[in-house]
């Protein structure tokens, strides 16, 4: 990471508070996906974490960080799960007497709703909680100060929308679409090989529905067409090959484990309405920033109806999401 402060990363906070459309109330899809990789994280800690090395030093605190923690409650469950497994590792190694204290750093953009996050902290927790506001694209922690770093559903957010998407003279101009993976991608992103890609994943289909709703609203004069043409979701999901190249180029880590997980079990209570609420909880902020708040209810009402027409197709493909599970070890 670089501590270059010349440019400020853009911020896309999830819906704050604990209301009907909040991320707090509409993030159980993400929780289900996180639960899928819990056993894998447990295995890696059991196999790879060197607690003997840590216990041999004067260091008495084990420090964890969740990058992109949002507003809870998923982050609390995950951090406690990790701590439980680390404690089990100490005990299994006969080091119970050297059990450290635990400190968790909850990180997200400065615009994140930290009030809701900390107001909902578990009252009986086995860790000290610390908030770290700022983009994880920048320098956040002192060198060699963390033992375990976790991130889920956060790395796909770009720090800044590539300018080529907004340039009418660029081959990557994304007219009429809200997500460039939904069309032909000829965009060069630093560190990511350029190429041609068309998304066929359920996420791409969902973004397509959202874009169609915005186009319809532009045709009816509810918004300006130029606003649609200049709106793009700053999201890029790197492939395993691309992630491998990025890690190798960075040179600071070894890849200990990498695999694609495709959870078979669907989320209980999956419905078109639930899908709409989850999308709104995650994207309302960035949409409001570009189009204003007046169109939000109408937009997501239209989205709900449009995707419900094709929900049988989505339901046949949509589970808790295809994920890239990757474990890195500092060199």
UniProtKB/TrEMBL annotation:
InterPro entries: MeTrfase_7, MeTrfase_capping, SAM-dependent_MTases_sf. Keywords: Magnesium, Metal-binding, Methyltransferase, Transferase. One of its GO terms (molecular function) is metal ion binding. It holds the Pfam family Methyltransf_7. The keyword Methyltransferase applies. GO terms for biological process: methylation. It comes from the Eukaryota. This is S-adenosylmethionine-dependent methyltransferase.
